[in-house]
Amino acid sequence: MVDIPHEASESAPPAEIEEMELPHAHGWWSTYVFSQDAKVIAVQYAATALAIGAVALVLSWLIRMQLGFPGVFTFIDAERYYQFITMHGMIMVVYLLTALFLGGFGNYLIPLMVGARDMVFPYANMLSYWIYLLAVIVLVASFFVPGGPTGAGWTLYPPQAILSNTPGQQGGIVLMLVSLILFIAGFTMGGLNYTVTVLQARTRGMTLMRMPLTVWGIFVATIMALLAFPALFVAAVMMLFDKLLGTSFFMPTLVEFGEQMSYGGGSPILFQHLFWFFGHPEVYIVALPAFGIVSDLISTHARRNIFGYRMMVWAIVIIGALSFIVWAHHMYVSGMNPYFGFFFATTTLIIAVPTAIKVYNWVLTLWRGDIHFTPPMLFALAFIVTFVNGGLSGLFLGNVVVDVPLSDTMFVVAHFHMVMGVAPILVIFGAIYHWYPKVTGRMLDDTMAKFHFWVTFLGAYLIFFPMHYIGLMGAPRRYFESSDIMFMPESAIGLNAFISIMAFIVGFAQIVFVFNLLWSWKHGKDAGSNPWRATSLEWQTPQTPPGHGNWGKELPVVYRWAYDYSVPGAAEDFIPQNQPATVTHEAPA
Amino acid sequence: MSAILVFLAVLALAAGWWLARQGLMVKPWLHADAAGAIAHAPRQPAAQIGLGVFLAVVGSLFALLISAYVLRAEMGDWQAVALPAIVWPNTLCLLIASLALEWARVGITQDDLARARTSVLVASAAALAFLAGQLFAWRLLAAGGYFVNSNPAVSFFYLMTAAHGLHVIGGMFALARTFERIWNGDKTQRIRLSVELAATYWLFMLFVWVILLLVLSGWAGEFLSICGQILSGSGIG
Amino acid sequence: MFFAIVMVLIVVGSAAFHFLSPWWFTPLASNWGYIDDTTVLTFAITGVVFSAVVLFVAYCLWRFRHREGQKAHYEPENKRLEGWLTALTAVGVIAMLTPGLFVWATFVDVPDEASSVEVIGQQWLWSYRLPGADGTLGAADNRLVGFDNTLGISPEDPAGQDDLVIEGGELLLPIDRPVRFLLRSVDVLHDFYVPEFRAKMDMIPGSVTYFWVTPTKTGTYEILCAELCGTGHSYMRGTVTVVTQEEYDEWLAGQMTFADLST
């Protein structure tokens, strides 16, 4: 343990934030494997999340094989099908999106963007990753136990989840619950880091209102996750008790194969309340970092300050708070007291207002901008289209009475894939194209990026937009076989086949992306320290990629907000945050 | 879900109060500072803030457990179970542990290391007694024919005491760490921080336990369900 | 430039798909036309918003694409514009929510004259119970379920003796008469869903849930389970046929009572 010495320069008073002790790596293992450096941990998180995400992508192909060409691929039976959809959903939502946004981008960007040397608790941060990896391994292990992984649907609703007519009820469901418990424990360690780093380790001058929106989004999402994940934790522990110790928290009196089970007196609805008390905030835990990142991408590549920064910050905070009182809109037809529908429909539609403000402000940032069609910008623009589309279809499902015919149909599947599948994934891609030069010092290849972009964006839109209409007809979700439903026209079978083919194409296009990631690591164009001419601190590091401790001898000092693009009278079209004001510019009110 | 909503409402108020003092209304683009013009308020140690955030997470966990308990207890077939009498002396042990650490906290501000050492030892002993007592409470229940799957009220008793007990065991590690620091004569600054963190954590554990006891003994049950009904119209649960 | 054109094509294509594709709601067969109306209203409002936003983005992409010497306009915020947009959004949200809540109020309020039909779900079969001559359903409990009493009807309750029991068969409903569906499950969650009726509700073991509907069109409709209930979920189908009152009465006369079945 060596303290990095702090030397006061003459131009600025000594930093009053304490210099932190950084654990220094000795040798290869502690530099690249058991590293306590947030930047290394970030890459570990991202690589693991992308790897397990690839598994989920393959699962989605298997799902689409069955839906598009029922009966053709005979190795997919109903049991396997339900295992595929369950694992696909859980992996994508928790192990890919949550882990990548918070563990990946959070770890990399928070310390750099707020001007810290590292996360405040580096050891806990390292543990966080290794526990996450363990959770992933336990999850993957469930593919290899007798009975296979659970097929209870990603919502894991009891009583069905732990009964024998559901695949994976022997070992699969137990491993799933254990894996979730591990994930939450690991995330809590990381989450404490992200929160306290934003609260405590901002460099001098970095007031809250000078933070880039990326940090705001990740910060609020982390706090939400810290408070919402315990609900899943409690639900998982209680279900484990039901499964292993024979308690009846969620298990009412019920009969299986004509036999009375020993369970009795539990409440399946209780599980749903707990699950969605986590599950709805989870949507925003994924969405808020995406909101933040996309704001910064649009602003940087349109060379214009983000429009209505204050509104953007307030909207993030308000959305975060409101998202805790809308959970039961997933339960309109669950059999809970129907009068709750009035309350939850109202709160749900109220959230549409701050969310809409965010969309307007992204669009107004483009307006009168200087738009560069770089790969990050392309993905950000595609995000606007898919997010607006998916957000608007949310208004159908949030409005309780419109939800009645649509809930549990393919409309829901189309909606949430558009809004929290495609939209955040597009942001992830955009963000990777944007920050890869900082992580590696090299640019990703532009041609491959554009190919990847167009296939992914248009393909995903063609998959999920028509899917709404299959649901509108009444086709339920989670149907192994839906082509034989009486009212389904022949043409719907063709539509399903079309969707499947698009899904295969989009999936294969990701190979180009992965190849680009690997190839450019060595052969990419040299990026320099600030290829996008961006203002925020991570682009002002003395080394690229940033070294251990991020800032060399001295922490940066922040003199301005993160969006001084195209300031009238300035020589360049951007002013970095760590550049002091010489002449105060005339800012229009 | 009334308990967790009340808990989150309190957190939201605290967060709102804090945010209100962070200048959320300023227009950041109007203020670019000149070099050397930046003052910065000194901050609390990160560990203290970290503990605060962690306790919010733990609080949320227990609030959710209580929510689940209340939702279940509102159903018609609920049969409450009398608590084993040993929980009351156990509570006393936890109280002693917490008081001892408060005593240590006062001592350490006066650089009284000996006092801190004694207090930490007393607290550890009391905490061990608490854990042993809780285990004994389980034995008593089991001897009375109440196993974890016997009825929902008992299941909740086992679950909640187990959750609390695990957090107390976590606190034992913190105590051991503190004691080690005092014993090795670490920097006073560090010992002080360590003692303060431990004292705060144990105070919180006492607080959680008292709330759990009120809920499990049924005293708070009725009160909470009435509150729940008022708050959420017949109880969102 | 290219992207602007793609954006316009997305709007035009989506609208064309919406209006020209053959895929839409199944023909309505119940009183819940209000639900369709609210849905269409929501389509209209959201469609306009989607088109407006994406077309505006397309305009910006074309008009403000990077050219040599161009500089972005510096404008941190515009309170008035943001205020107007917020107000407009609020109006749109209220326009969708208000009718929705009114329709929901009718949905949860079962008319007094509605007759009761109990639907019992089990893996993976639909069964029904209709009140007999006394007009009330007898008590039932999952604890009573066994091989000789698969629906768990209480043999002690005299009101249950004349209940008509239809196990795994077809359900008939009279046209234009409101029906209150009382939903029970003996094992896991199910969901009674007839797309032509628009309404659905989960069935929970241990409790009785409900919804109501007035069939308005004769015909045979498929009942789907809409809550994942195990491996056979997608095969849990049944049929409900809406008939005239006379046909219904005739059918009713041919059903077995609980007392008949238990002897």
Automatic annotation (TrEMBL), chain A:
Organism: Devosia nitrariae
Record Pfam families: COX1
Keyword Heme: yes
Transmembrane segments: 42-63, 83-110, 130-152, 172-192, 213-241, 283-299, 311-333, 339-357, 378-398, 410-433, 453-472, 492-519
Protein name as it appears in the record: Cytochrome c oxidase subunit 1
Principal subcellular localisation of the protein: membrane
Family: Belongs to the heme-copper respiratory oxidase family.
Family matches, as PROSITE patterns: COX1, COX1_CUB
Subcellular location as annotated: Membrane
UniProtKB/TrEMBL annotation, chain B:
Membrane topology designation: Multi-pass membrane protein
Cellular localisation: Cell membrane; Membrane
Predominant location category: membrane
Pfam name, any one: COX3
Keyword annotations from UniProtKB, A to Z: Membrane, Transmembrane, Transmembrane helix
Residues spanning the membrane: 46-71, 78-101, 121-141, 153-179, 199-220
Domain Heme-copper oxidase subunit III family profile: from-to ranges: 1-221
UniProt-listed PROSITE patterns: COX3
Family, similarity comment: Belongs to the cytochrome c oxidase subunit 3 family.
Protein name from the UniProt record: Cytochrome-c oxidase
Gene expressing this chain: coxO
TrEMBL record, chain C:
Keywords in alphabetical order: Copper, Electron transport, Membrane, Metal-binding, Respiratory chain, Translocase, Transmembrane, Transmembrane helix, Transport
EC number: 7.1.1.9
Transmembrane residue ranges: 40-62, 83-107
Record InterPro entries: CcO_II, CcO_II-like_C, Copper_CuA, Cupredoxin, Cyt_c_oxidase_su2, Cyt_c_oxidase_su2_TM_sf
PROSITE patterns: COX2, COX2_CUA
Keyword field contains Translocase: yes
Top EC class, one word: translocase
Source taxon at top rank: Bacteria
UniProt feature coiled coil, ranges: none
UniProt key word Translocase: yes
Enzymatic reactions: 4 Fe(II)-[cytochrome c] + O2 + 8 H(+)(in) = 4 Fe(III)-[cytochrome c] + 2 H2O + 4 H(+)(out)
Membrane topology recorded in Swiss-Prot or TrEMBL: Multi-pass membrane protein
Main location: membrane
Localization per record: Membrane
Domain named Cytochrome oxidase subunit II copper A binding: residues: 112-254
Family in the record: Belongs to the cytochrome c oxidase subunit 2 family.
Record's function text: Subunits I and II form the functional core of the enzyme complex. Electrons originating in cytochrome c are transferred via heme a and Cu(A) to the binuclear center formed by heme a3 and Cu(B).
Protein's UniProt name: cytochrome-c oxidase
Organism: Devosia nitrariae
